[in-house]
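**Archive record**
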Amino acid sequence: MDRQGSVATLRRAVAALARAHLPDEGRWCVALSGGADSLALTAVAAGLRPTTALIVDHGLQAGSPDVAATAREQALSMGCVDAQVLCVNVGSAGGPESAARMARYAALDAARGGAPVLLAHTLDDQAETVLLGLGRGSGARSIAGMRPWDPPWFRPLLGVRRALTHTACAELGVTPWHDPHNVDPRFTRARLRAEVLPLLEDVLGGGVAEALARTATALREDNDALDEQAAHATAATNLEDGPSAARLADLPAAVRRRVIRAWLLTSGASDLTDVQIRGVDRLVTDWRGQGGVAVGSRLRHERLFAGRRDGVLITYREQV
């Protein structure tokens, strides 16, 4: 791909997603970090519709206010109608990467003012996400990766390689910020990017990132079909009083676990893992009078458990 074609390729990708999923041509926002991916996306988006750049300052690195201020200036110079710096406090729940992500998404959601938000995840990011899911045994939902559209979030660059955004920035004459966390081996994703994916590309003869992205797409299509079946099953299940183990046992395993997941979420669970859901599933399929299964709770001062009583799944809480 020659440099003169990079911006045009990105523009076609953004315009195609907009035609399919954002046809009203109203204002949209772009999450801008100052890196090459989000900088190139911001430039393209601002040329298509009125665009507000949302710049999250996590406050985790020295000089982060300066990085945010530079990104704001670049956004305005590229035609954004507005550019806002959002300062957040990052907690510690789930580790540094997860905590920063939760803080970022919360800030973006609060600032978007009802508008959709474009995120600059690329095909390379998708491949890394699939590998993380595979390595952690997180189940099909995680391995299916990120959705191109999951309102209010839209990812028009999931079919584009990261290298293209760098050549687009060169074509545009803008200098991206290089986040040192992206090459810091303390972070799992950084090691995947620098060590694991290049090794896989070498061993398997190339094309690994594209293959992982195709795997995510195929799994996402399968998940959507199973989710639709589970939605019908969930509608026929009394979630408020607790689902009947006997009725759940009659469902196909993949559908049953989705109904269990929906029930746990309505009962106050959060951050559910495949291990937890399968543990609750065994209360249905391998009942031996065992105790409850601990699942994640939205409240920090309590632990949430799923159990079985009189043939019905129940939840109960313990204070910590």
About this structure: The CA atoms of residues 185 and 195 lie 10 Å apart. The chain has two domains: 3-204, 236-319. The chain has a mean pLDDT of 92.
